[in-house]
Amino acid sequence: MAFSSFIKIFLPKDRVFYGLFEEVAGVLTEMTQVFTQAVNETNPQKRETFIKKLEDLEHKNDDITHRIFIELGRNFITPFDREDIHMLATSLDDIADFLWGAAKRIHNYQIQDNDELAKDFADVITRSVIALSKAVKELRDMKDLRAITESCVKINSLENEADELLDKAMLSLFSAPNISAVELIKKKDLYEMLETVTDKCEDAANVIESIIIKYA
Amino acid sequence: MAFSSFIKIFLPKDRVFYGLFEEVAGVLTEMTQVFTQAVNETNPQKRETFIKKLEDLEHKNDDITHRIFIELGRNFITPFDREDIHMLATSLDDIADFLWGAAKRIHNYQIQDNDELAKDFADVITRSVIALSKAVKELRDMKDLRAITESCVKINSLENEADELLDKAMLSLFSAPNISAVELIKKKDLYEMLETVTDKCEDAANVIESIIIKYA
Amino acid sequence: MAFSSFIKIFLPKDRVFYGLFEEVAGVLTEMTQVFTQAVNETNPQKRETFIKKLEDLEHKNDDITHRIFIELGRNFITPFDREDIHMLATSLDDIADFLWGAAKRIHNYQIQDNDELAKDFADVITRSVIALSKAVKELRDMKDLRAITESCVKINSLENEADELLDKAMLSLFSAPNISAVELIKKKDLYEMLETVTDKCEDAANVIESIIIKYA
User: What domains can be seen in chain B, in order of their start residue?
Assistant: First the structure.
């Protein structure tokens, strides 16, 4: 809050939002890196350290998102529709929530094995968040609309990739001859949560696409 | 996109939306027919053909929904509130998503038996989508408000019917003495998804109801 | 509807909403009391009576929420943004839906034991709804903004408490050595639904917070 008041003195009111969205994009990018480290870590204690770090990042993201909503209440002039700012902030926050939700499941369900499918999901999610960060940064000057559109198309195709990963995962879980039901519940829940992260990236990309249609 | 540009020459801008919503309603109706065929089919190969067809229809619906959002960005004049158009498009798209999601579960979980409850759900969903299509078509000229309201009331009562089906299903699954946990997970997930389809029909009906209150 | 038409003669149009939101808050408070009685009841028949009572209250809440949407369609003058009224009504309705959903699970899954964690959740939910009711009542005259903010902060911290309860619950379910998978499914589903109730309280608090930022 203090920092936000400070920058409002130096920046035109409506430019505050670009900085806040870029901060969110930065935290999300860091979260995908830490999540990737967590699913690649074989040492349980070290994995827990990464999961704890994800929790801190998720809290940090909550704070920035909260500042976006506070600014939205204060500012009469916004760089794009208030509703679009609200929807973009919400969908970006959902990405953090579901990624942290997936990490928490690894902890709560005590998933011990080095899960290949979780690594595949981490990779798709990382690429999707990188594309999303690019699109968010381009919103500031709206100069390279083609780059924004390309990022959005990429996010859509990564969501399809995650869909196919989930289908493959489910088919394999439900046809595994000796899987215990408890094991199946754990993995099903984890994979579904990871696939939802890419859905939320797509939601954010859709908002960005609708913004550039209106304002460019 | 090409077709959409074409009709914009001949139609007042704001009338584009009626045609697009009617296209969505048409695809949804076809999806309920194909889904009904899938759950009534006993031959696994033939059932797979119906599920594949549903996937194609879901993609077709995605394309039309995408065109609605593009038009929404372009058009300054809309026949009803932009927010209502957005919410109606979203809830109709959700219907397609969840119905396709249910079909995908039948495939991924390799649900082989001819499930009586799935047929009952297919029937309720079909009737709900028929009522919804009627309401969507009536939006164009707003002449028969009573017919729109009647359709919305019907959709609400079909959602209650689906609720009761789900309760019955859950009570029966959880009191089945010899059901395997894996079997229970499959069916629980399928029925919950099918019930959600009727929730999404109700969401769409609520948007339509709020439109006619404002504009009639 | 008849009652709503009646009060519109005596009250300025825009004040109708305060009364309706207070009615919702009242029903939600009663629902948390009945839910608490249900989870503390050891006699199965008596517990069923409480669950039936919850269903009636949920229907009552649906009716009031429907009236809010009807008024929103009719009224051109609203005491705060139409979108905020819509979001507040929706999130309050979600609280009722998920609480009733939890109660229905106790019934459908035939959860017989006196569940300590369900009682803990009932307690957190009750305190959250009490804080929310206070905030809703204060909206009418906007005199005590500090009290509204304090209620919202409390609701946020209760949501965190529910998160921790859920983590504890999941860790304990998934490390229980002799739990049956079916038992695990029942409890997991019930606790997740109860935690979602506090999420919806937080959503409502966020809307209220954004209203007071704009209008105070």
Answer: 2-215 (1.20.58.220)
